[in-house]
Amino acid sequence: MIQTIIKKGKVFPEVVPAPLVSKGALLIKVVNSCISAGTEISGVQGSGKSLIKRALEQPQNVKKVIDMVRSDGIANAYAKVKGKIESEAATGYSISGVVIAVGEGTQRFQIGDHVAAAGAGRANHAEYVDVPENLVAKMPQGMDFKSASTVALGGIALQGVRRADLRLGEMAVVVGAGILGLLTVQMLRLSGARVAAIDLNNHRLSIAQDLGASLVINPKAENAVNVIHNWTGSHGADAVIFTAAADSSEPLSQSFQMCKRKGRVVLVGVVGMEMKREDMYQKELDFLISTSYGPGRYDNTYEEKGFDYPFAYVRWTENRNMTEYLQLVQEGSVRLDQLINAVYPIHQVTEAFESLQRAQEKPLMVLLDYGTIGADRMTECLNHDRKVPIATSPVVNEVVNVALVGAGAFATGIHLPNIKKLAKKFRLHCIVSRTGHKAKSVAQQYQACYATTDYQDAIRDPDVDLILICTRHDSHAELVVQALRAGKHVFVEKPLATSEEGLGAIKAFYADGTHNKPVLFTGFNRRFSIYAQEIKKHTDKRINPLFIHYRMNAGYMPLDEWVHEDGGRIVGEACHIIDLMTFLTGSSIKSISVDNLIPVNDKYNSVDNKVITLDYQEGSVATIHYFAVGSREYPKENMEVHFDGKSIVLDDYNSLKGYGVRLNEIRTNASQKGHLEELEQLYETLKGTNKNWPIELWDMIQTTEATFMITKFT
Question: Distance (Å, rounded) from C-alpha 324 to C-alpha 154?
């Protein structure tokens, strides 16, 4: 499919893999999409800025880079930052089209429905989009696709009006007569308010007047504050809705000055935020922020998981705002005839964006067109090819061909650079990702043969030797089983599984043993680090059992973050430590005990603040302090190993110190946690040099089952 891509200040159409329909979502064949002249143009301009200019404008990110240098080293940090800046990005967040597939759990829609959808990262400028149900609204009967494609902008304007909460006959000022401003003017008039519009462009002011503004003001010609005070009989406006975009704080100061006592300013657009106390204090003004399309925006539970807010308690969610906007347009209460100035076919997207950046009179609203779709083309669209060729390279038997599934930050920041370093052993054959543009971008960067959004393309590919799974945790077990059944070796990032059912399916596959079956490897990388290997040389020579203490200062994560789902952080991260303990003891676990922190309020939780004690069959005892209440300024990981009058201390995989034992006291600038070494070990197994798996099956299963047991202690 064709999708609009931004890279280094340029906008262009690119052929990328089309998406599949997701659970709780709809697959939509896009007919029209609307370009945001504010947000999207700012994104284009920002992508063309140099690293130095970005650093000056976003000093908060400089600290993140410094922290990254400390933890990952200069070379790795530079590679990550460079990759981020030079990467391609999708754009767009307002579309209309036809539903061609309905995801599992979706109830309100059916194939063939005409819909409008919103959401950055979802409702992109692309021929096909996969959008969660709560970000999709049905179009009223007979509504045209062009008008419906403005739904996101309409929802934003409507939420701003709701935040202003004006009553019949009250007086409002709209600062900025762009798209949002002109929509806001019309909605305020519908609510019974009297409206003044302010803008530097006389043509736009003329349109505002035609759409219902009682008063229009050009600040270049007259003092806007004085005019508003005259218009309101010296009382000031009941509310000012700021829909413009400005770097200066002066327009915001003027907005406060226009208000009456106990009035309010609602920020919908962008403005400098240096507020003056004297502008607000004496009149006891309210300053309100309007968040996008309304309640539900940026709430993962609402948008991605599909949980709605009760109608009686949250009357106007973002979806209800979107639906109401479409109705207002269809019935003619909100007019778009003077706002939509141009429609470009998708292959002319570069020209469309350029028209919004030219110095002369800019169009108000520009749409993209992808062509209409009839019932006779449904099957054709649904069977759209998800596979895009990138490069052609001969298959080399000595090299393991890898299919990467999930092209997130960890995979692209850790695994792919390591695969590149081991080019004589591994080759990236294909990329599978939910988002087609991400799959293609990464595939091009690493010269993979193709990119796809369909996992089955990799499963069915006879040239793929190894499936590297780096998706969200809850999908791991199912993807592992599919790959194993297809005869593919599997490297799955931790955890191996997040449920007993998922782990059971993997155990069932190997129920009669591992002989002549694909190799399964879980990314418990700590045991492969140069530090763990050095410690193991000495603990293997012990006379008595080990006493091990491991501290993981995991850091606080809000409870609504995805890391707390599907087993949470114990299943998803503490598994590393349990695996390392088993590696050092060389024994199976006899018993597990757990103590939990009991917080006094809701900020912290016992689920990621635990003391875990592992008793091993050969007598060793390992205690793990896994906690989220510590300081991020304190090192993340530390391990002490005590035995036979000897002590070994590992500090954050940066240094190793022995007491009473002569060892190689390793020290590295960046943490070395074994990610490269685990790939080397896996290669030896896959090529038959080592007949044993890097981690035995019973060991991976034991670690996973141990995490399940630990999460049950509350």
Answer: 9
Q: Mind listing the pLDDT tens digit for each residue in 484-496?
A: 999 999 999 999 9
Query: Tokens representing 385?
Result: 């090819």
Whole-angstrom distance, CA of residue 143 vs CA of residue 422: 56
Give the integer Cα–Cα distance in Å for 205 and 4: 32
Q: List the one residue out of 630, 114, 688 whose CA is nearest residue 397.
A: 688
For tokens 């991260």, the residue is 573
Quote the CA–CA distance of 473 and 568 in Å, as a whole number.
9
Q: In angstroms, how far is CA 202 from the centroid of its own chain?
A: 40
Residue 673 near residue 577 (C-beta atoms within 8 A)? no
* Distances 372 to 365, 377, 381, 693 between C-alpha atoms, Å: 20, 10, 11, 54
**pLDDT tens-place string over residues 253-289:** 999 999 999 999 999 999 999 999 999 999 999 999 9
Q: Which helix (H) or strand (E) holds 585?
A: helix 575-585
> Can you spell out the DSSP letters for 34-83?
EE-TTHHHHHHHHHTS-HHHHHHH-HHHHHHHHHHHHHH-HHHHHHHHHH
Per DSSP, the three-state class of 566 is: coil
Cβ atoms 51, 81 nearer than 8 A: yes
- 3-class state of residue 617 by DSSP: coil
Count other C-beta atoms under 10 Å from residue 298's C-beta: 9
| C-alpha–C-alpha distance, residues 176 and 462, integer Å | 58
Residue 473 phi, psi dihedral angles, 5° rounding:
-55, -40
pLDDT at 66 over 80: no
Burial (CB count <10 Å: 0-12, 13-18, 19+), residue 154: buried
Q: How confident is the model at residue 395 (pLDDT cuts 50, 70, 90)?
A: low
Tell me which of 72-76, 117-121, 547-551 is least confident: 72-76
For the chain, what is the largest distance between any 2 Cα atoms, rounded to a whole number of angstroms?
Answer: 93
In this structure, which amino acid lies at residue 77? A
Closest CA to 175 of 165, 166, 167, 185: 185
pTM of the model: 0.89
Q: Which string of DSSP letters, residue by residue, matches 382-449?
A: HT---EEE-------TTSEEEEEE---HHIIIIIHHHHHHTTTTEEEEEEE-SSHHHHHHHHHHTT-S
8-state DSSP, 128: E
What is the distance between the alpha carbons of residues 29 and 100, in angstroms, rounded to a whole number? 7
Q: Are strands 365-369 and 387-389 parallel, antiparallel or unpaired?
A: unpaired
Hey, what are 279's tokens? 């502008």
Torsion of CA 179, 180, 185, 188, to 10 degrees: 150
Helix (H) or strand (E) holding 573: none
Average pLDDT, the chain: 93
Helices (H) and strands (E) in the chain, counts: 26, 30
Q: Give the up-direction half-sphere exposure of residue 132: CA atoms within 13 A in the CB hemisphere.
A: 20
Residue 375 tokens, joined: 């019932």
Residue by residue, DSSP assigns 321-390 as HHHHHHHHHHTTSS--TTTEEEEEEGGGHHHHHHHTT-SS---SEEEEE-----GGGHHHHHT---EEE-
Whether a cis peptide bond, with omega within 30° of 0, leads into 495 is yes
For 161-172, the pLDDT digits (tens) are 999 999 999 999
Whether the Cβ atoms of residue 150 and residue 137 lie closer than 8 Å to each other: no
What is the rounded CA–CA span in Å between residue 20 and residue 457?
12
Q: Which amino acid is at 66?
A: I
| Residue 700 pLDDT greater than 70, yes or no | yes
